[in-house]
Design a protein that fits this description.
This protein is an alpha+beta fold. It has 2 domains: 359 residues, no CATH class; 62 residues. 43% of the residues lie in helices and 17% in strands. Strands 1, 2, 3, 4, 5, 6, 7, 8, 9, 10, 11 and 12 form a 12-stranded mixed β-sheet that branches. Helix 6 packs across helix 7. The radius of gyration is 31 Å and the shape is elongated. Keywords: Membrane, Transmembrane, Transmembrane helix. This is Group-specific protein.
Length: 480
Amino acid sequence: MKPMELTSLDVDRGYVNFLFPFAFHEKNRQNLVDELKREGYTFFCLDKTEMEDAFYGQEIKVHHAELEQFFFPFIEDKLFPTEPHNNVFSRFSRPFEEHGELLVDGTTTPFHLHSLDITLCPFGIGILTIRLEVDTSTKLHHILNFIHHFRVVEAKLEEEKGAIIRTVDRTFNSTNEYLFEHMIPCLQPFILREHRLPGYFGTLPYFEDERMYSSAFLFASPGQELTNDQIYRLGQLDGINLKGEPFISSTSPDYVDRFLKRHVNDRAAPYTYTVTSEYTHSTVTVCSPEDMQEELRQFMSTHYYNLLLHYFYRIMLLRLSFEHSNVSWKKDEAYVEELIEMISKFSARYYFGEVAVRTTGKENAKTFVDIFHLDDTFQEVRDTLQELYRTQENKADKQQNYLLFMLTTFTVISGIYGMNLVIEDWKGFTDWGKAPGYSFFEWVALIIALTGIGLSFLLILTTLGSTIKKKYRRFKRSQF
């Protein structure tokens, strides 16, 4: 069997989106909203048709009416609310139109950053979206190398290091510096990092190695042939290796074929292909931009929201699985109920098997569910919910059995005494000085009476304290 050979592809232009998820305090949601508005970010609303061509680049105009008709109503009212609040996806956008360039491996790739989005999702999850355009003709391996390095927020591995981002007046050593020191410094104080809040409202320790998810629409020069190795490399972001040469991460044609069968939508083959992987959701075409305006518009609108929704699903399902695996049953008993509530709310309000009305939307949604392993992870979460319910029921049964045992004990003893534990010395003023002279049965009656009264008060105080603690925790939780 011959190893997979690399073929060259000339790319004239590429539109690239990067998605960066983060956690924030729910109690600071309104403060974050106010700060974004002060920084010039506008709340995205379908009624504001003047936003249709404000954030996506020249001559790209999305249709809000198409967005409104693309999703089922039970999803639409969450994705496109008329005003921001806790239980919806509140998007804030700002155009920048700033030029920059990424220098890596001896190659300079100019880019044009069109806009930034901040989408505040339910459960204290936020998603930062960077929209940029590479409008300089280049080779496929160069633009893949650009995407590979730009998506790394903080480089840790050797093959990720060495990238520099340069603007008109500044140079940045990482994407993290470029974004959070230059483009959107106001977001930095609201992001939770390197620690966990009490319970289940911490950072994203399950996030994949500080890398952003990429989504691209690449225009290759017309007249070329799109080959399997090119589409595979697009899905794996195989650009340039440490030797400075174009590379592919698999040399097996059979493996590449299996990958393409699962990850590629070839509806418009042989001129256009869309590949979806755990790193990217990207389209490459050899058609002219004039002939692909409809597809490019959908890439910026309906397909973007389809990806955003399923990416949120992925984050939340990973979060719920992670939180359950870190439950300390003895220490975090009070948080089990909150985890049950979180799973129940997510399952009932947000996670749906069918979200899109159009055929293309259904196909993309099915691909996201498959590639992100959403159904399998959701089943694990459902099993987790059942396990938590069983645990709660067992604890409740033990408490009831213990209470029943105590009540039965006092009932039996009281019955032996004829339901009368009163000693004559207790009537009126109690003279405790006579206690040493009590008979054995009077001592039993005294101990039973005092213990019963003490347990009753203890039960009342414990119940009252538990109720107050739960209400306080719910109040505190609502502030996050």
